[in-house]
Amino acid sequence: MTAPVHILAVRGASGALRVVVFTTLFAVACSSMRGTTAPSPSGAPAVSPRRLVVRGDSLAVYPSADKSFPANLKRRLAKKPVPWTVTNASTSGDTTADGVRNIDDVLSRDVNVLVLSLGANDGLRGVDLATIEQNLGSIIASAQNRGIAVLLCGMETPPTHGLTYSLGFHTLFSRLAQQYRVPLVPFLLSGAVFARNVHGPDGIHPNAAGAQRIADTVWPYLEPLIDDAGEAISAALGSAKWLRFGGVADHTDLGAGPLAGLAIIGPP
Questions:
Q1: Labelling 150: which of 32, 34, 206, 250 has CA 20 to 30 A away?
Q2: Is 58 labeled as catalytic in the residue annotation?
Q3: Tens digit of each residue's pLDDT (9 = 90 or more) over 7-31
Q4: Residue from 6, 57, 58, 68 carrying the catalytic annotation
Q5: pTM confidence score
Q6: 61 and 29: one domain?
């Protein structure tokens, strides 16, 4: 039996209409969620994994790759209906300047959510507050320009460089969250900083229990972004009207937004 023919019509930025002919089922997921969909053996669209990236410092690295707070987030994400992969792009000792320097590499692959937890080392070194704020703002803007949702993690710093510096460091995170309209974890270490038995031998970095507490702190702010991603994917898949090529009476116009310019024609 001859396979039915399907068409994907894509109107590019220049206005030219490009038509691609398919002989298999084609489904489109929201481009801001990244990834494509393909038919499962039963004929239902299968969703490709979403990607979450954590960009931080040693607080996201310790105590080990499989016990760090990003690893704990990965285990929670595994329970979600939409599959997720987690990339821990954190490096011990990194500052916000390091984050700016390699942001293109960190976000080069398909990324849907960025957890940004840099800044602790800047505070300990007394980096100029305006520079910290500018660097974090640059990272957030780079992610948002790619359609990536951002969760900003706030930090505190001891008054080693003066109380005025510590207070200014505290306020810059909430100011950034308001400016870029991103959710903010008020203090990444709020569940661990004064708790017992949550630090490694150096008394600074988290052990396994401390990393779990950090994940517990982050999760209530992260989960809504994850759920929004899943809902957007479901909505994109559920909105497509599939029609058989030949005698076509209608097609799906996906209108404005990240799917703008796509018209889908396929089997019912």
A1: 206
A2: yes
A3: 344 444 444 444 443 333 333 333 3
A4: 58
A5: 0.72
A6: no
